[in-house]
Amino acid sequence: MTSSPSASSLSRSVTCFGVGEGWPSGDRRHASFLYRCGRTALLLDCGDGMSSAFKAAGIAYEEVDAVLISHMHSDHVGGFSMFVQSLWLQQRRRPLPVYAAPRAITALKAWLEAVVLPPELLGFEIVWRPLRGGDHLRLGEIEVTVSPTSHLESLRQSFEARYPATAFEAFSFVIEGSGFRVAHTADIGDVRDLQPLLKKRPDLLICELSHVELEALCAALKASPPARVAFVHVAREHLESPAGVEARLHTLLDPVPFSLPKDGEVITF
Ligand SMILES: [Zn+2]
Question: What is the rounded (10 degree) CA torsion for 34, 82, 98, 161?
């Protein structure tokens, strides 16, 4: 029996726990996405509110195979300790690999201790894995390529000398497996950050829409079009008129298909 592409794509999805940006929002949680491919489940970022979305989705706490942290802004990592607390209370037992920049690991370990979640309490091991640009990770049925982005570069230049323990790295990811390729920008600083993601055409691009001009972003996407785009982390000024931003995207991006998913939406690929 041959499995149809639609049957296999049913087991490949990304659940958008939070599509919000860095500003507080009454109706959007902050950045967190669960990628699933067959039996592999990968959590990308843990923005504020993700534990509630995770619970609402009814996902087993043993199911997550690894966590990736794109960078240390709170809209991407502010829910991390609450998620670890959830795993402790729900009695997870499997070790959990957590990938983050080396200085982010030091900070997250200290934060878990500070919020009274020492390793001896948890009942499962957090396996800390340093993340660096250019890394290729094999996580079950998923392969991840890590690209550095310029998102925190100006802050690095202003503050790194005074705050050498702060992790100023930020990463984008290409997530691949048998028959699919998805690119995930997390937060970028310049359209040039997109180049490594678009080099080989992704079937889906999860693309932030806060830190680069709409026109420049769409021009870059039209020059190397992904099969489709889901815009997340959309800046609040764009959403003052959701119909308006959709119309502008059509003008700038057609015929590249795109969507503006909401919290909780599941996208198959
Ligand atoms: Zn962000």
Answer: 120
Summarize pLDDT for 169-208 with one digit per residue, the tens: 999 999 999 999 999 999 999 999 999 999 999 999 999 9
* Ligand 1 centroid distance, CA of 100 (Å): 15
Q: How far is the CA of 155 from the centre of ligand 1 (A)?
A: 14
Q: Is residue 68 part of a domain?
A: yes
Q: What is the 97 CA–ligand 1 centroid distance (Å)?
A: 22
Domain-embedded: residue 61: yes
Each residue's pLDDT tens digit, 20-75: 999 999 999 999 999 999 999 999 999 999 999 999 999 999 999 999 999 999 99
- Beta bridge partners, 181, equal 176
Q: 0.85 cut: is pTM over it? A: yes
Per-residue tokens: 84: 């670890």
202: domain range? 11-258
Q: How many domains does the chain have?
A: 1
Q: How far is 70 from 173, CA to CA, in rounded Å?
A: 8
How many angstroms separate the CA atoms of 149 and 172, rounded? Answer: 6
Angle between helices 102-114 and 80-89 (to 10 degrees): 60
CATH number of the domain at 22, please: 3.60.15.10
CA nearest neighbour of 45 among 201, 198, 175, 153 = 175
